[in-house]
Design goal:
alpha+beta, three-stranded antiparallel beta sheet, 4 helices, 31% helix
C-alpha cells in the first residue's frame, strides 16, 4: 500500500488533484465531472432489459409467467400472464396484480392497518 505522500506524488504526476484537497460538503456545488458522468450513464432513462417495472401494464410484459414474492413472509407466488389478464384485465399494472395476489392469501394479519398484509417484491423470471 503506498503512503499518502506517494499517492499525492502519483496524483500530481497524472495531473489530478492532490489528496490533501478539501472534500466536498453537503452545501457545495457538485463538480462538472459528476454531472457529466450522470448524463453519460448508460442506464439513465432506461431500465435494463428483462427487468419489468412494477408499474408496467400486463399487456406490456413480455414474460408468460409473473412472479411476486413477499418481503415479509418470504412467500413466492406465480401466475401465468394469461390468467392474470383474465382475472384482472389487460390494463391492470403488475403492482396491482401482485398486491392482490398476496392480499388474497396473506397469513400475517395483526388487526392494525399499518402492519397488515404482505410487502410485494417483483422478480424477473
Amino acid at each position: 500500500m503506498p503512503t499518502p505522500k506517494q499517492m499525492e506524488k502519483l496524483a500530481a504526476s497524472l495531473g489530478g488533484k492532490a489528496i490533501g484537497a478539501r472534500p466536498l460538503g453537503p452545501q457545495d456545488e457538485m463538480p462538472d465531472e459528476y454531472w457529466q458522468a450522470v448524463l453519460n450513464d448508460a442506464y439513465v432513462g432506461n431500465r435494463p432489459l428483462g427487468q419489468p417495472s412494477a408499474g408496467q401494464r400486463l399487456s406490456e410484459i413480455p414474460q408468460h409467467v409473473l412472479r411476486v414474492s413477499c418481503r415479509r413472509c418470504e412467500r413466492i407466488l406465480e401466475i401465468q400472464k394469461a390468467d392474470a389478464i383474465r382475472l384482472y384485465g389487460q390494463q391492470a399494472s403488475r403492482r396491482e396484480v401482485g398486491q392482490r395476489l398476496l392480499d388474497n392469501t396473506c397469513q400475517n394479519r395483526t388487526g392494525r392497518h399499518e402492519e397488515d398484509g404482505c410487502w410485494p417484491a417483483f422478480e424477473p423470471i
